[in-house]
Amino acid sequence: MKLVGILVVLAGWLVAVVGLGITQSTGARLLLAILGFVICLVGILGVLNKAHMKNAVWKA
């Protein structure tokens, strides 16, 4: 599950970076950057956090 979370975070980063080369429009770049940021947050807070909480030290 941690690997899936890392892949989701990398996919979000990739969306933001690829958005720079796709268009010259500032609005489209902003939209793609925000979309990449949201995807990264889902990967970090949604997937990676759940995987970490499953094996947390204080739950032993």
List the helices and strands and how they pair.
Elements (H helix, E strand, L loop, with lengths): L1 H21 L3 H29 L6
Helix pairs in contact: 1-2
Verbal overview:
The protein has 60 residues and is mainly alpha-helical. The protein has one domain (2-54). It is built from two helices and no strands. The protein is elongated, with a radius of gyration of 15 Å. The mean pLDDT is 93.
What would the keywords be for this entry?
60 residues, mainly alpha, 2 helices, 83% helix, 0% strand, elongated
Number of strands: 0
Task: Write the element-wise H/E pattern from the N-terminal end onward.
Answer: HH
Shape: elongated
Strand content: under 5%
Q: Would you tell me the overall average pLDDT?
A: 93
Characterize the biggest β-sheet. none
- Write down the domain tally: 1
How does the helix and strand content classify structurally?
mainly alpha
Helix content: over 70%
Q: Helical stretch count?
A: 2
Quaternary form: single chain
Q: What ranges have pLDDT less than 50 throughout 5 or more consecutive residues? A: none
Rg to the nearest angstrom?
15 Å
In short:
This protein has 2 helices and no strands. The protein has helices at 2-22, 26-54.
